Automatic annotation (TrEMBL):
It comes from Mycolicibacterium chlorophenolicum. GO terms for molecular function: methyltransferase activity. The lineage of its organism: Bacteria, Bacillati, Actinomycetota, Actinomycetes, Mycobacteriales. Residues 214-233 are annotated as: Disordered. Exhibits S-adenosyl-L-methionine-dependent methyltransferase activity. This is S-adenosyl-L-methionine-dependent methyltransferase. Its EC number is 2.1.1.-. Keywords: Methyltransferase, S-adenosyl-L-methionine, Transferase. InterPro entries: Ppm1/Ppm2/Tcmp, SAM-dependent_MTases_sf, SAM_mthyl_Trfase_ML2640-like. It is an enzyme of class 2 (transferase).
Length: 308
């Protein structure tokens, strides 16, 4: 279904299902011969959501042989490349938090937390406070499922169940966030699901809430000429055709916002932050994974690290 201003979802539908999809990719990546990440919560969380295609993927019952079109795993969103990309992305944000903590930051915010299990799987200092923000059904599902599995957060976790198009800064403050202290923020797998002006507004809000010494890591999605949108949507659909034949029932082309948008690092520099971006291939190489064809898949995504 096409997006609307106040649309909502759970983890099996619309934008929420993308959180289940990337968690399934983390489960696949965690099982690699030489894994770059270890997310033991990914598979049980995906299983609990109950979408058959993602459960089979997470459990290893659907393999590259089923989903990579017999091209040796080189398809732009073949499962091998997708899991590699998600492994590198996960490590990038894990490393970002480790660096922020080493620099003395004790307050962190995961925007659009989805099935992110960092509050349960990373080592945090005793005086850390971690906030997670996502839509109410997404927040409630992860909390209940992990509690049911006997998992406990490894830090003080405060969840903020609100849409990021609403007044989330007020909700975050109510949960105890202290904007006079430095904070570390991540926006992983989020911006493509926000219209370009909402991305700007979110960055403005983060800036307003960030004391000097704060840091931000974000996944920046490319800007597109408005006229290219139809062609891009068609390409997106085609790239998951084979997955669809195995029961994949998600049309990204309806979920994402295309068109012209700000380049995240540049936008932040314009607001006085020091910011750098690394394309997907830099991350893949950094973590010992093969690079992608630069014209394909999500090679044009940029991972931004910024400090105020
Ligand atoms: C691709 S998933 C990424 C989840 C998580 N960051 C990860 O990488 O595993 C996209 C997430 O963004 C959340 N999201 C997208 N738009 C949102 C909004 N307007 N308000 C709150 N959450 C939003 C979805 O609920 C979903 O959990």
């Amino acid at each position: 279904m096409a997006r609307s201003d106040n649309d909502t979802w759970d983890l099996a539908s619309s934008v929420g299902a993308t959180a289940t999809m990337v968690a399934a990719a983390r489960a696949v990546a965690s099982r690699a011969d030489e894994p770059v990440i270890n997310d033991p919560f990914a598979e049980p969380l995906v299983r609990a959501v109950g979408v058959d295609f993602f459960t089979k993927l997470a459990a290893g019952e659907l393999t590259p042989a089923d989903l990579d079109a017999g091209d040796g795993g080189q398809s732009p969103v073949g499962i091998t490349r997708f899991a590699d990309g998600m492994a590198a992305r996960t490590r990038f944000f894990d490393d970002f938090f480790a660096d922020a903590v080493a620099a003395g930051v004790r307050q962190a915010v995961i925007l659009a937390s989805g099935l992110d299990a960092r509050a349960y799987r990373l080592d945090w200092p005793a005086d850390m406070v971690l906030y997670e923000i996502d839509q109410p059904e997404v927040i409630a599902f992860k909390k209940q499922t992990l509690a049911g599995l006997g998992a406990r957060p490894t830090t003080e976790l405060r969840t903020v169940a609100i849409d990021l198009r609403q007044d989330w800064p007020a909700a975050l403050a109510e949960a105890g966030f202290d904007s006079s202290r430095p904070s570390a923020w991540i926006a992983e797998g989020l911006f493509g699901y926000l219209p370009p002006d909402a991305q700007d507004r979110l960055l403005d809000q983060i800036d307003e809430l960030s004391a000097p010494g704060s840091r931000l890591a974000a996944e920046g999605v490319p800007s597109h000429h408005e006229g290219d949108s139809e062609e891009l949507r068609e390409k997106m659909k085609e790239s998951t055709d084979l997955w669809r034949s195995h029961g994949f029932d998600l049309d990204f082309s309806e979920l994402v916002f295309l068109g012209e948008r700000a380049e995240v690092a540049e936008y932040l520099r314009g607001h006085g932050w020091a910011a750098d971006g690394a394309p997907t291939n830099d991350l893949l190489v950094r973590y010992g994974l093969p690079p992608m064809n630069p014209d394909e898949g999500f090679a044009d995504v940029v991972y931004v690290s910024a400090a105020k």
